[in-house]
Amino acid sequence: MKELAILTKAMIQERKDIAIAIVGGFIAGIAGVSLFSASGYLISQTVFAPPLYTLIVLTSLVKILGLLRAASRYAERLYSHRATFSLLSRLRTSFFAKLIPLTPGILGRNRSGDLLARIVGDVESLQHYFLRVAYPPVIVVLVFLATVIFTSVFSIWIACLFVLGMLITAFVVPGIVLLGQRRRQGRVREKRAELSTEMAEMLYGYRDLKVYGQMKKREQLLQDASAALAAEQEAAARHLLLGQSLHAFVAYLISWGVLILGAVFIVNGSLAGVFLAMLVMASLTVFEEAAPMAVLPAYKQDSEHAAKRLAETVLDADRSESQPSTALSTDKAVSVELCGVSFQYEDEWRPALKDITLSIPPGSKTAIVGPSGSGKSTLIELLLKLRVPTSGLIRLNDVSVRELNEASIWQASNVVLQHSHFFRGTIRDNLLLNEERYTDEELSAVLEKAQLRNKSLEDPVYEKGENLSDGEKQRLALARVMLRKGRLWLLDEPTSALDYVTEQRVLSHLLTEAADDTLLLICHRLTGLEDMDRIVVLDQGRVIEAGTYTELMEQKGYFYEMKLIERQMIDEA
């Protein structure tokens, strides 16, 4: 399937370690068969009181084979696991490279718990593909063929019995395991995803559940999901145990067949009795190498399902497609042009943006206003190439966004989104997110500009900024963005949680910092927009008005009515 072809391609890149692991596994398997065969032959020879040098040679051979088996098995495990971990590293790297720019859309389609299960659990499941799916058949075939050739020297019929046993263990037993396994494993994965989702939602909503007295109910749902997963895992484990038991039964059945056939051949004189123990020990040992075949179908299905879920997320993108090489320049202010841009979210009945045409000169200051749901934040995401327009064209510095490298757009942009993320650490840690180096004086100065003079660089910040107020989060995000060197400022409701005085002070510093840059400010409050070069009014995804503050007030249109309502609310307050 296409998804596993991706893994096969990655395995080719680790061909050196894989080749060494296969050679080590083959030597270990042959050494194991030879060791037990030589032991059986040694035991049989002692009955006939052979010369001392014969016993010395056989004893030394057994010791050498034991050391060879241990050394080659160690090399096989070392290189096979190193190849596996390298494969996982490559997979994680490519997965996150595709995941990052698609995150907004993915979060809209998938519950966060299910996405977490894919990122962690499904990637980890793919570690079994090489070790449990691709690797065992190669070793089984090589070791069995060598053993069959060796056995045919003594008896062609016993060699045929070995071939029969190999076919049964390689095809019949896995086929029996496969019956019903797909359905069982499907239920296990479904229950695991449900448990991850319930756990994530309970952790995210812990305080609300406590406040509304629903924690007990949610805990019961979590326990039910856990019990359902345990029950499905137990059923799947019993089915796998059936396969392992069938494999052991076949192995012992073939060994009994070798013993009976050997006895018959000894009686009719076609086989020397001294070789019987050797053949029986070879039979018992060679089937140990085929033991992984009994559980191969389960791991194969698990790997296929994990690869498919990852493909549904991001990995089905064409990996041969290279990123655009054109970079957005940061040497000058950025011009923005939108020509007939429309965008519609998946499964939404109406477009979020409809036929937007705008031209924003470099170095200008533009405010985008409008009611909630009018498409303002979507416009920012389109400019950042976080989403792709349904139709229309976006140009930055007269270059289509489709032709620009995503990383260069982000590098050239100073962005504050509605919900900024903060990491557990200190104020300093959350300011120093880029690779630039700043002195404590520079960091303190930017905190002063963001009206966070009461904060120290060493003050702790909890995960997601839980110990900060909404206003402090916004000011810290603004302080962080003031440290960047981008020439395009994209600010989405950066001061919505601030009081009027603090907001004006912060915006004043922002306009000073972006004096020579292009700035797009999304806001609901209309106070202070007199300093903007242009105001664009959106409603239901369309541009309904555009102009300077004075022009829009003179038109007495939608913006004028919004301003009157805002003034009335301020007067009543």
From TrEMBL:
Keywords: ATP-binding, Cell membrane, Membrane, Nucleotide-binding, Transmembrane, Transmembrane helix, Transport
A Pfam family that the UniProt record links to this protein: ABC_membrane
InterPro entries hit by this protein: AAA+_ATPase, ABC1_TM_dom, ABC1_TM_sf, ABC_CydC/D, ABC_transporter-like_ATP-bd, P-loop_NTPase, Type_1_exporter
Keyword Cell membrane: yes
Membrane topology, record value: Multi-pass membrane protein
Location within or outside the cell: Cell membrane
Domain ABC transmembrane type-1: 19-288
Biological process per Gene Ontology, one example term: glutathione transmembrane transport
Spans traversing the lipid bilayer: 20-42, 48-68, 129-150, 156-179, 246-267
Cellular component, GO, one term: plasma membrane
Principal location class: membrane
Domain ABC transporter: 336-565
NCBIfam families: CydC
Official protein name in the record: Thiol reductant ABC exporter subunit CydC
Biological source species: Paenibacillus ihbetae
Lineage: Bacteria, Bacillati, Bacillota, Bacilli, Bacillales
